[in-house]
């Protein structure tokens, strides 16, 4: 297991940047275990809804977590606005860093993640494989 601290800078797209980092570093199985920072816009997909909701205002990232692998990312985030209202959901493309995002990733080098169709859910779900 290897810890990888990461800082995203203004203008970075959280999802795209983390997926690119996973590809560039050949992370076969990793978890984002925490993230904090700020966004200028968030695209969050709420439970049971097909399209993300766009929150276009200054936001604080309260939590960020999920999995990263060759098949992409599965990330969830909670954010708060200047009134203290909290929103949370699935991280879609378009979550843009305002000032910073400080993220801790853990690479699980003994495993490989993939996304495979799950007949019970109808979605491509995490499949965990030991590295040979």
How would you portray this structure in words?
It is a single chain. The protein is mostly beta strands and 132 residues long. The protein has a single domain, classed as Hypothetical protein, similar to alpha- acetolactate decarboxylase, domain 2 (60s Ribosomal Protein L30, Chain: A, 2-Layer Sandwich), CATH 3.30.1330.80. The protein has 1 helix and 9 strands; from the N terminus they run E-H-E-E-E-E-E-E-E-E. The strands form 2 sheets. Strands 1, 2, 3, 4, 5, 6 and 7 form a 7-stranded antiparallel β-sheet that branches. Strands 8-9 form a two-stranded antiparallel sheet. The longest helix is centred in the first third of the chain and has 11 residues. The model has no long low-confidence stretch (mean pLDDT 97). InterPro entries: PPC_dom (IPR005175). Keywords: DNA-binding. This is DNA-binding protein.
Task: Walk me through the topology.
Blueprint: E1 2-8, H1 14-24, E2 30-45, E3 53-55, E4 59-69, E5 72-80, E6 86-91, E7 96-107, E8 111-117, E9 124-130
Antiparallel strand pairs: 1-7, 2-3, 2-4, 2-6, 2-7, 4-5, 5-6, 8-9
GO molecular function: DNA binding
InterPro entries: PPC_dom
Keywords: DNA-binding
Query: First CA to last CA: what distance?
Result: 16 Å
Number of domains: 1
* CATH-level-4 superfamily name: Hypothetical protein, similar to alpha- acetolactate decarboxylase, domain 2
Principal-axes geometry comes out as globular
Q: Which sheet architecture does the biggest sheet show? A: 7 strands, antiparallel
Average pLDDT taken over every residue = 97
Number of DSSP strand runs: 9
Q: Oligomerization state of this entry? A: single chain
Number of helices: 1
Q: Helix proportion of residues, in percent? A: under 10%
What portion of residues belong to β-strands? over 45%
Rg, nearest Å: 15 Å
